[in-house]
Amino acid sequence: MNATSTRAEIEQKKQKETAKTWVRQVDEKGRAYGTGRRKCSVAHIWIRPGDGKFVVNEKQYDAYFPILDDRAKLLRPFTATKTLGLWDVNCAMEGGGVSGQVGAIRVGISRALQSWEPGLQSYLKSAGYLTRDPRVVERKKPGKAKARKSFQWVYLLLILEPVADAYDDASPYISATKEVR
């Protein structure tokens, strides 16, 4: 055997050992915890086995998120792992708008499911639910109206006006600039 295959075998052994070290992380109340972030929103998620109750800031999630697409995005980690309706979810939200909060809750639920059952990580990771969306609002730059938007362009137009002049040999027109809006 050459050195590269030996190194590959060593890497495989390390991966198997780290896969064995994933252990369920549950608190004394029998809940798993996950934190999710998106834009300016932060979601603190606690899940435990139950009958499918979903509470966000002490309100039912359908009252907190009235738009159906937002509710569907919240439940996607459960549908990816085929555990819809088997968990009670309690969520504490901070900051941001609706879309940022939905994204933060989705990441938090995924991380909480992973900490409860490490075997679900492959399903969640392949669906992309464990990855935080790094996009944030771009800052405003000096000399710009917004981050990239420029102010309205105002240009000077060269207008020729006839001018009575004492010199006959000179051109009857003299240039003058006027601002045009």
UniProtKB/TrEMBL annotation:
InterPro entries: Ribosomal_Su5_D2-typ_SF (IPR020568), Ribosomal_uS9 (IPR000754), Ribosomal_uS9_bac/plastid (IPR023035), Ribosomal_uS9_CS (IPR020574), Ribsml_uS5_D2-typ_fold_subgr (IPR014721). This is 30S ribosomal protein S9, chloroplastic. One of its GO terms (cellular component) is cytosolic small ribosomal subunit. PROSITE patterns: RIBOSOMAL_S9 (PS00360). SUPFAM superfamilies: Ribosomal protein S5 domain 2-like (SSF54211). Belongs to the universal ribosomal protein uS9 family. The keyword NAD does not apply. Keywords: Ribonucleoprotein, Ribosomal protein. One of its GO terms (molecular function) is structural constituent of ribosome.
